[in-house]
Design goal:
The protein is 34% helix and 16% strand. The chain has a 4-stranded mixed beta sheet with strand order 1-2-4-3, covered by helices on one side. The chain folds into 2 domains: 34 residues, no CATH class; 68 residues, SepF-like protein (Translation Initiation Factor IF3), CATH 3.30.110.150. The chain is α+β, with helices and mostly antiparallel strands and 122 residues long. The two termini are 32 Å apart. It is built from 4 helices and 4 strands, in the order ααβαβαββ. The radius of gyration is 19 Å and the shape is globular. α3 links the parallel β1 and β2.
Length: 122
């Protein structure tokens, strides 16, 4: 019995050429496993989307926000960034940029370590 079969049981209908569709597996088990906090990826298209994202962080969750759709709109991006900074300051959360078009926004009691981990290979 292979490694995947030991974890997931015998061959499932989502198996394709020896690969298991983990997305289907995770969706079916995610509702069964309670969690205090979730991590979600969002993409902001316009300023009005910001309320939905701040509500998610106010709810105690972590948000990875892709702002590439508004990256060329300097005034809008600055407004969104300032509002997010105010929100995390208000709830004692944290915010940090990731790469060129992503940021991470965390709720209270979650701080972002800005030092990049680097693995060493021998």
């Amino acid at each position: 019995m292979g490694f995947v079969n030991k974890i997931f049981g015998e061959k499932r209908s989502g198996d394709v050429g020896g690969y298991v569709d983990l997305e289907k597996y995770m969706e079916s088990t995610a509702a069964e496993i309670p969690a205090k906090m979730h991590v979600r990826i969002g993409e902001i298209q316009r300023y009005e989307d910001l309320k939905q994202f701040t509500d998610y962080v106010y709810g105690g969750n972590i948000l990875l926000l892709d702002f590439s759709p508004i990256a060329d709109e300097e005034v809008l991006l600055k407004r969104v960034t300032n509002d997010l900074k105010s929100m995390v300051s208000e709830i004692n959360g944290d915010i940090a940029g990731i790469g060129k078009n992503m940021m991470i926004v965390s709720p209270s009691e979650v701080k972002i370590d800005r030092r990049k981990l680097r693995g060493t290979f021998s």
